[in-house]
Specification:
The complex is a heterotrimer. By secondary structure, chain A is an alpha/beta fold. Helices cover 37% and strands 22% of the residues of chain A. A 6-stranded mixed sheet of chain A has the order 6-7-8-3-9-10, sandwiched between helices. In chain A, strands 2-1-4-5 form a 4-stranded antiparallel sheet, with helices on one face. Chain A is globular. The termini of chain A are far apart. In chain B, helix 10 packs antiparallel against helix 12. Chain B is globular, with a radius of gyration of 23 Å. Chain C is mainly alpha-helical. Chain C has 2 domains: 30 residues; 213 residues, MetI-like fold (Orthogonal Bundle). Helices cover 82% and strands 0% of the residues of chain C. Chain C contains 10 helices and no strands. The longest helix of chain C is centred in the C-terminal third of the chain and has 38 residues. Chains in contact: A-B, B-C. The interface between B and C is large, with 53 and 46 residues.
Chain lengths: 290, 257, 248
């Protein structure tokens, strides 16, 4: 069983803040997405980022993955400052619909391996192994639109796993799924990750999911976000379904709720005034590439 | 089987379509024989009967050959040019924003107005017909390629960056598959547009092509030959369209948008 | 958004004129093919001032409007009748799409034979070319009414007439209007085409006539005029579509 060493830092975020130019029509107006944030993510742990909509958690995740450069502060992965995506170190699982619909799920993984410049002879084997690990071997020749949402996300996870990166960043991977599927996938994820010792950063809206899956939970305030608190869960992996009904789970969940409640209220009232949230736009729109 | 179910079967629908076309031909036959002055209208029976005489005329077969040749060359050039221009305009966001309005402006200009200029520049022969076919046929391909590149979902752009794809890899594995479905359907539209351009040029000024003969048959009040000439061209156009549509349905086996 | 689009377009037009101007000054191109743009503009101004443009313009306009009136009224009526039965729609759909693939300009010599070189042949051509797209679009528009809306309205007790007035028409209208817009544009282009190929008068004829008379300056002047007319038509239709889209 993998034991996390609190001194072995995989991702370090120091004094990071970020503002977007007025990309949304208001000339000169800046959108402060993230205010001065510090966070250290330990190697081998699963850390959740949770907070109200638009608080900057996706922005923070994108910065960890090199899709975005912070306007101030620095992000370090394995000690080196992040300036661009690091496909051999960090892989992503996005929300639904990130698989290419014109490829089978097997080909989707093969293409990702191609991008990573894995030698062509190995690609098929690695892809098959990854599908086997998530239990989708029989569906290798299926196209994403022929599969259910839960299976698609498992395929997306297989894709990320196949790249054999140390760090996996997941941006609300289960958000588009119904609660029952989420529960089951969460258990599967916990089992899988326990075996691999990878560092996972997970952005989520779901309090229960954060408590169930994480070693630690970073609570982000409303926009512009900063780290309010980091909660230790302290429960060994793999997590079992019984954990959900335990007193510890309820207590942690209640702590989260208490921290977040006011932040969520505040966000909802500003959202009604039409101030948009970033999310995918932060990764796609802020670079000058297409 | 109930009457409705009987009629609803696809094969039976084809019978109805054939009957409908036959009814139209019958209407044409009667109109030409009994109701309209024979100087203006010729019945299909006579048109068919004199078809071999029509093709025996010197130059008619050649005229069709020229038409097909002009069409084929214009089509191939249109597709290649449309693809290259579409890629040039569509691949980068900056060029899209600057060039698309100009492309749309050109597309919205009535090309028939510049036909005399094209004729002045390229003469009355083969060349001007091909050029006018190209100016018509290039737009469906160009617009389809540029537009489908524009519609590539942001998540795919992000994925390409996140997974470290090189520009060529991004094109080959992401942009190209996004582009292909609409590219194939634009081929059929391009063919129709090329045909339109070539025909317009032919009808405007022609010394030995289809346009020449239509003028001749119109001036000499020879509706039989005129109908014959046009019917063959119509059948050709329908056949071309149908074969391209068939090829499209065979190649594009999945719709993923 | 459209402001920057318009800016690029205007910029492009200016660029074309500048290139045209410098080409005539510096390159040895025959003035027959490319006359001095300054002279062309002067000739165009003359056309406008002398009201020489009015007669051909009204000829063309009347031909276009007649053709469009015929094709839109008959087209919508036929579409409505066809769309009453799904079986009919499915049967005739490929026939309609098939005939639509044939460039109807091929039939123009027939119309010229039947109706002569006057407005009749142009109206016939304009009608033929604009009729089928209107039918195809309108049939699709009528067919697309969500059955759920019809069901809901029927449950609430709507009569056949009320269904037509309050459910069918409002949901079909946007698509019908876009079909009509396409029809009008096609009618305009086909009438122009017919006039250029064979006609006694009209805008297209002016272009063809001045081309045959080797009067390039006049020809270019007419071409610019027709392009301006076409552009105004498109802009007006876009405006109507935008305003109409907002109305309830």
């Amino acid at each position: 069983m993998f034991v996390v060493n609190p001194l072995d830092i995989a991702v370090e975020i120091k004094g990071v803040s970020h503002s977007f130019e007025g990309a949304l029509g208001q000339a000169g107006a800046e959108l402060m997405a993230l205010s001065t944030t510090d966070l250290a993510i330990r190697r081998g742990e699963l850390l959740s980022l949770i907070g109200p909509s638009g608080c900057g958690k996706s922005t923070l995740l994108n910065m960890m993955g090199g899709l975005l450069t912070p306007t101030s502060g620095e992000v370090r992965v394995n000690g080196a400052i992040v300036t661009a995506p690091m496909p051999k170190t960090v892989s992503f699982v996005f929300q639904e619909n990130a698989l290419f619909p014109w490829n089978t799920i097997l080909d989707n993984i093969v293409v990702a391996l191609t991008f990573q410049n894995v030698p062509s002879g190995e690609r098929l084997d690695v892809a098959h192994q990854a599908l086997k690990a998530v239990g989708l071997s029989e569906f290798a020749q299926y196209y994403p639109d022929q599969l259910s949402g839960g299976m698609r996300q498992r395929a997306a996870l297989a894709r990320a796993l196949s790249l054999k990166t140390d760090i996996i960043l997941m941006d609300e991977p289960f958000a588009a799924l119904d609660e029952q599927t989420r529960m089951v996938l969460g258990e599967d994820l916990s089992t899988l990750l326990n075996q691999t010792g990878k560092t996972i950063v997970l952005v989520t809206h779901s309090l229960g999911e954060a408590v169930f899956l994480s070693d630690r939970i970073a609570v982000i305030s409303a926009r512009p976000g900063r780290v309010l608190e980091v909660i230790e869960v302290g429960e060994p992996h793999p997590r079992h379904p019984e954990f959900v009904t335990s007193g510890k789970f309820a207590e942690l969940r209640n702590r989260l709720y208490a921290l977040l409640h006011d932040e969520i209220r505040q966000t909802l009232s500003t959202q009604a005034m039409g101030i948009p949230s970033a999310g995918l736009q932060s990764a796609a729109g802020s670079s000058r590439h297409d | 089987m109930s009457q409705v179910a009987f009629l609803a079967k696809a094969g039976h629908r084809n019978w109805v379509r054939c009957l409908f076309v036959a009814a139209l031909l019958l209407l044409w036959e009667c109109a030409a024989r009994f109701w309209v002055d024979p100087m203006f209208l010729s019945p299909p029976s006579r048109v068919l009967g004199q078809m071999d005489a029509l093709f025996a005329r010197p130059g008619v077969l050649q005229a069709y050959g020229d038409l097909m040749a002009e069409l084929l060359i214009a089509f191939v050039v249109s597709v290649v040019l449309g693809l290259l221009l579409g890629l040039a305009v569509g691949l980068a966001k900056s060029t899209r924003e600057r060039m698309m309005p100009i492309v749309l402006l050109l597309y919205g200009t009535p090309q028939i107005t510049i036909l005399p200029i094209v004729m002045l520049a390229a003469g009355v022969g083969f060349g001007s017909k091909v050029i006018f076919g190209i100016t018509h046929g290039v737009f469906p391909v160009l617009l389809s390629v540029a537009s489908s590149l524009q519609k590539v979902r942001p998540i795919y752009h992000v994925s390409a960056r996140a997974f470290g794809a090189t520009p060529w890899q991004k094109f080959r594995y992401i942009l190209l598959p996004c582009m292909l479905p609409s590219f194939f359907s634009s081929l059929r539209l391009s063919m129709i547009a090329c045909l339109l351009g070539v025909l317009l040029a032919e009808l405007f000024a022609s010394t030995k092509g289809i346009g020449f003969f239509t003028r001749q048959f119109t001036d000499t009040f020879d509706p039989t030959s005129l109908f014959g000439l046009i019917s063959v061209a119509v059948v050709l156009a329908i056949a071309l369209n149908a074969s391209l549509a068939w090829m499209q349905s065979r190649w594009v086996t999945r719709q993923w948008t | 958004m459209w402001q920057s689009n318009a800016a690029y377009q205007v910029g492009f037009v200016v660029l074309v004129f500048a290139a045209w101007f410098f080409a005539t000054q510096w390159l040895a191109i025959s003035p027959l093919l490319m006359p001095d743009p300054v002279n062309v503009i002067k000739r165009l101004a003359q056309l406008l001032q002398s009201l020489e443009w009015m007669d051909p313009f009204w000829v063309t306009a009347s031909e276009v409007l007649s053709a469009f009136a015929l094709s839109s009224v008959l087209g919508i009526a036929l579409s409505f009748v066809l769309s009453r039965s799904l079986w009919v729609v499915k049967t005739f759909d490929p026939l309609l799409n098939g005939i639509n693939a044939v460039p109807a300009i091929l039939f123009f010599p027939l119309f010229a034979l039947l109706f002569g070189l006057g407005p009749g042949s142009k109206i016939a051509l304009g009608f033929t070319i604009s009729f089928f797209p209107i039918v195809i679009n309108t049939t699709a528009a009528f067919g697309r009414v969500e059955s759920i809306h019809l069901k809901a309205a029927t449950c609430m007790g709507a009569s056949k007439w009320q269904l037509l007035r309050y459910v069918l028409l409002p949901s079909a209208i946007p698509m019908i209007l876009s079909g009509l817009r396409m029809g009008l544009t096609l009618a305009f282009l086909s009438v122009l085409g017919g006039e250029t190929i064979a006609s006694f008068n009209g805008l297209g004829h002016q272009i063809a006539e001045s081309s045959q008379a080797m009067d390039s300056e006049l020809m270019y002047a007419w071409i610019l005029f027709v392009i301006a007319v076409s552009f105004s038509l498109n802009t007006t239709l876009s405006l109507i579509e935008r305003i109409g889209g907002r109305a309830p």
